Amino acid sequence: PAASDPAVANAYLTAFTDYEFGNGAYTTARAMRRLDQPVYLYRATYAGKGRLARLGAYHSVETHLLSGMFASSWRAPDADDRAMGSTIAGYWTNFAKTGNPNGPGLPPWARYDQATVSLLELGHTTAMRPVPNTEQFRFFERLLKARLAALQSRPR
Fold first, then answer.
1. Helix 24-34 to helix 134-153 angle, to the nearest 10 degrees?
2. Which of 92, 101, 106, 116 matches a 20 to 30 Å C-alpha distance to 62?
3. Cα(31)–Cα(34) distance, rounded to whole angstroms?
4. Bridge-partner residues for 120, per DSSP?
């Protein structure tokens, strides 16, 4: 919740981001694991540079790093950008070839597991981390279940 009127916009953006991006990936990972499918969950935290730096790690930043094609507002790509792009390319190539993103020279990426509830953070540090915001995701799940129950109880 926002503590003041000026904090409302940021609280809304945080809730929107959690719902639109984090919750969808988290819910899908949990559903796939219930079907006993291997799941590799990640969170991109690599922040843009130049004028985009104020956005932090925005949606699709990993595709810019992977392709090496950056918006004109990104300052000239540097060695860190190229290294992150190479890491992402390694993971995605391995996954496309074998169904497992892990490979030589890459930080280990563990399968998503409901017991550990972790993901790979793709950022200036690439490592396994706990899935953030799971309490918000549980709230969204309760909200959806309540809405579905209300719809099912309506007279037809």
1. 80
2. 116
3. 5
4. 42, 128
- How many other C-beta atoms lie within 10 A of the C-beta of residue 144? 12
What does pTM read for this prediction?
0.83
Q: How open is the CA angle 15-18-19, to the nearest 5 degrees?
A: 85
Q: If you write DSSP's letter for every residue of 128-142 in order, what string do you get? A: EEEPTTHHHHHHHHH
Edge-to-edge strands, sheet with 118-122? 42-44, 118-122, 126-130
Signed CA dihedral, 114, 129, 123, 108: sign only: negative
The residue ranges of DSSP E strands in the chain, in sequence order, are: 42-44, 118-122, 126-130
CA 90/CA 114 separation, integer angstroms:
26
pLDDT on residue 96: 97
For the chain, the residue count is 156
Q: Which two tokens stand for residue 142?
A: 């309760």
